[in-house]
Write a structure and sequence with these properties.
This protein is of the alpha/beta class and about 300 residues long. It is built from 10 helices and 7 strands. Helix content is about 55%, strand content about 15%.
Length: about 300
């Protein structure tokens, strides 16, 4: 089991998070590792983690010299984690690992799920409205039917391995990717705990960024494997409209002996755009095909390395 903890300027709480994570392992009668990314902290977070490593050999610390954000931190830890279950928790003790980790794992195993999301009960911070907007969009756009999609979560190894390379702020859309890939999703209530120290790293400015990110991710998930369906579809629509306009202009010229040159030029431009969109679709298909071949070669090389070891 692997617990991943992104941390930035959390010197007051990171020790409690790590200690209570290992206590959770002992309580459940299992072993595991805790991975922490020190994401460009400017306080004593790095020093605290160094001392914790002396006490806990299974604590693995990664350092980003500058703050690269939560998504980059998760990408680092997901790649390095080794557990069959990967659990994401914050470093600010808004989630108590000793209580929430067993709850997530129990729900995951009892209901035979692939992903379990925590659902904060009685939440009373200044991000409730932003969270409601986020969860509404996830429910309607991505079919993520949980109450608190951007909170703690437990995922099986195959879910983590199915994630594409994460970028931008895609850490908010892990459930969206998991649902798109066909994994079973559930949720479990957890106790709300207000932050006792430090400051939140997120604000209202994340809403427009998240909206753009969800549009990009939705497009990639829907059309990345078959881009011709998108570009070719738009191209066919443009050519159909152009053909209809040309037909109208021909009939208008034959029966009314009248020309509409601006409309003729617009229809011609639309036809050219349609052809270009179809050509872009062909190029995108070639890129996807090459990407799939590279991915397959990487898997074969990785398999050979493991066999050699």
């Amino acid at each position: 089991m692997s617990i991943v903890v992104p941390a930035r300027n959390e010197e007051a709480t990171i020790a409690a998070v790590v200690e209570r994570s290992f206590q959770a392992f002992a309580q459940m009668g299992c072993s595991g590792e805790v991975l922490v990314v020190n994401d460009g902290s400017t306080d004593r977070t790095g020093e605290v983690l160094a001392k914790l490593q002396e006490r806990f050999p299974a604590l693995r610390v990664f350092t980003h010299r500058r703050g690269r954000g939560m998504t980059a931190a998760l990408q680092t830890m997901f790649s390095a984690s080794r557990g069959e279950i990967v659990i994401l928790i914050p470093a600010d003790m808004e989630s108590d690992p000793l209580l929430d980790i067993p709850a997530l794992v129990t729900k995951l195993e009892q209901d035979d799920l692939d992903v379990v999301a925590g659902w904060r009960q009685g939440r009373r911070d200044n991000k409730v409205l932003a969270s409601k907007i986020y969860n509404f969009v996830m429910d309607r756009v991505a079919n993520v039917h949980v109450h608190d999609g951007n909170w703690i979560k437990a995922m099986r190894r195959e879910v983590v391995e199915s994630f594409p390379p994460l970028r931008s702020d895609w850490h908010r859309f892990l459930l969206m990717i998991a649902v798109h890939n066909g994994f079973r999703l559930g949720e479990v209530p957890t106790v709300y705990r207000p932050r006792q120290a430090g400051s939140s790293k997120f604000g209202w400015e994340r809403i427009p960024k998240s909206f753009l990110d969800v549009l990009v991710l939705k497009f990639l998930l829907t059309f990345s494997e078959a881009p011709m369906r998108f570009f070719g579809g738009l191209g066919l629509i443009a050519l159909t409209i152009s053909a209809a306009v040309f037909t109208y202009l021909v009939l208008l010229y034959v029966f009314a002996e009248t020309q509409q040159r601006p409309v003729f030029i617009a229809a011609g431009v639309l036809a050219i755009i349609g052809v270009l969109l179809i050509l872009v679709g062909f190029l995108a298909e070639l890129i996807v095909a090459q990407g799939e071949r590279i991915t397959e070669l990487e898997k074969r090389l990785a398999g050979r390395r493991e066999s050699a070891e």
